[in-house]
Each structure stands twice: as C-alpha cells, then as structure tokens.
Amino acid sequence: MYLENLIHVNLMTWESNPNNRNINNKITFVAKDGVSVSTGDIIHTSNESFYKIENITATRPAALSKHTHYSATTTWSSRRVF
Fold this sequence. Notes:
Blueprint: E1 2-4, E2 9-13, E3 26-32, E4 42-44, E5 50-61, E6 67-77
Parallel strand pairs: 1-4
Antiparallel strand pairs: 2-3, 3-6, 4-5, 5-6
C-alpha cells in the first residue's frame, strides 16, 4: 500500500541526514486505527522521500486517540523505485 505522510500516517522519528537513512533505518510513526500498515508498504513524504517498510518491529496504542504507534525498519530512497 502507498501511504502519504500527514494523510494516512504521521512520521514521528527518522534519520534527518539523507546519507545515513539506509544505515540508521529505524522510523516511528502513527496511523489512524483502520489504516492497514504492513511490510512492503511505502511511506511517501512531502520532501520526496520514500520509505519502504521492511519489518514492523513494534506496535502499541498511540497517545493520540484512535491511533496505533509503529516502530519499523525501512529502506529509503529519494525517488520512487520500489
């Protein structure tokens, strides 16, 4: 599934240095309950970053009502190649 940041999910933490995004490839994000998130999904951000979810390492209820908090490892690209 193709997930837009700020529409389907909200990225919480990610590596800010593009040179290290595939080295420090852990991200956290929240998604509304009812939005299906699984491995292979791609998160697209407004600054043209693409994160392919390789493994969901943890889930828990988010502090935000009716949302789930995810931790995941990803592969990052500056263009849609997945």
